[in-house]
Amino acid sequence: MGQSPPINQKNVREFFRGGHSKSHRASSRPFPLVLDLFLGSDPKSLQADPEFAGIALSSRLSSGTLRGQRGIPGSPRLIPGMGTGTGLPLRGPGGGAGCPGHGPGSAEAAPREGQRHPERSLRGAGRAGLAPGRPRGSRGTEGPSERARGAGPGPGSRCPLCSPDRCRAPCYEYPACPEVLKAPREEVAYVTCTYRCTCSEQPDFLATVDLNPRSCSYGQVIHRLPMPNLKDELHCAGWGPACGCFDSGAAARWSRLVLPCLISSRIYVVDVGSQCRAPRICKTIEPVDVFWKCNKGYLAVTHPLPNGDILIANTGDAAGNGKGGFVLLDGETYGLKGNWENECEVPPTGYDFWYQAQHNVLVSSAGLVPRLAGRGFNPEDLKKGLFGRRLNVWNLSCRSLTQCFDLGEDSLPLTVRFLHSPEAAEGYVGCALSGAIFRLSRACERDNWAVEEVIRIPAKDVRGWIMPTMPAFIADLVISPDDRFLYVSNWWHGDIRQYELARNCKPRLVGQVFVGGSILRGGPVTVCRDEELKGQPEPLVLKCKRVYGGPASLQLSLDGKRLYVTNSFYSTWDQQFYPSLIKEGSVMLQLDVDTDKGGLSVNKNFLVDFGKEPNGPCLAHAIRFPGGDSKSVTLP
After folding, report:
1. Does residue 573 sit in helix, strand or coil?
2. pTM confidence score
3. Helix (H/G/I), strand (E/B), else coil: 381
4. pLDDT band at 509 (very low <50, low <70, confident <90, very high)
5. Nearest Cα to 295, choosing from 268, 319, 312, 269?
6. Are strands 485-490 and 545-546 parallel, antiparallel or unpaired?
7. 366: closest CA among 443, 438, 310?
8. Is the dihedral of CA 479, 356, 305, 117 positive or negative?
């Protein structure tokens, strides 16, 4: 086989760029042997664990074998006491005390002013931010004390071309700016699709779906953007920075869609502004760059920050071990800047996050350890306490961890959502394995937050399943733009729930509909005891197609009247719990929402069947609308 090539950044970069490509797969050298050339690993051990063969590089990163040419940081130590206790304050009020390089008045805490973003031609240069307590229409330059109190790390004033009765479509300024609810109806949707764990050796792709009821291609995939690599696992999708206003009845749109890959750790930047119905890839960040610069991998949820940069949550390190934190992209060049948080304060796991800039707070959830999730769900892991249980509260401007909450053993807090009103100090956290939803709100103390359980979906006693008790698996949450309703997807039970939100009251269930799940009548699972239902629900059939799987990812229209849902959660777990979904492919459904009294119903005329794709059935997950949607963080 010859002498192994020298281990340096150039060789490793070329390896990762070609290791998953079609041309490499067609070569005579198997992937584990190529990895062996670079890392000196045992080919047999890599073949036994192909899920993580492509990132075994991290074992050399953490051990120091590859540290000679680049200063790769070691594994960060956790702050003592971070994993125990409820609401443990770490740095006192504001979390800024003793924060080197991120404290009040520091260069990293200050907003970036005087910059002109190429995609923000309407904003102009040298915009000043809004300080807390300042009227929304006022402008001015913040002092250092205002930045430290929680003004957020970047500019947040209005578009100069917006008239007083117009607003930015993507920013959901409710209730101060209720015109957002009159935004134009969504016409297309971008849906992430993967072929991983299916029988098709095809690259993942971004599907463009026609949502215009007057179109002849309504409810169909009108464009497919394939990725240049295999088995990336396109999972989440998020927008780059944008600014827009209503002008002649048309809403400005985002022009860049960021696609972080859950398995390969690549980051694709997609141009959707040039041709919204035929997007194209304009930039790719390779895994080796993420590994070198951040010592992280397995990327999940992404949101733009108030200063224009893009934040991506990670679930592990490059070796697949649990590691939380964030990867930061430049908002202008989309280049990788490095880690966002202080290196000494990395949570043990991560997945989702949300922030409220006016309250100077960012909240992140726990997540699955990639190595454990890649083997499938094992009930024995529940007994060992290997699933995340912690909710993290960050100081947004100082990038420091200020509080953490223990939400219970094996709760797995996965999804975080704040209310859309920029002034609201209230959010909700969905726990995947316990069926509980917690309300997050600011406590009496100015800089502290508190959590309380407000919803718990009862578990069901069953036969013929992996466990004798089937808990509710809360896969996703979405809040309506007017902050009236909370929608919950229950992936195992198969129902979508609508709760009415009210201040100082527990959410009230006002709508429920079953669109699949594991407890359907005639299936392998028998329900022995159910606190809610008198019988097992019937399977859902639309346009002569039986819907398999359970509701996973949700997306809500800006007017709150149409709720879209896909039924793939994570390809490995899809294969374990819903093998028919792998064979038949995912679907995308639309639910009609009663916004007056509450209620959900399946739209019988809408069905996107990803089982009829040209390259075979695929799995669909995230949904985004170019004109604005209900999963975008509110900007100040």
Report:
1. helix
2. 0.75
3. helix
4. very high
5. 319
6. unpaired
7. 438
8. positive
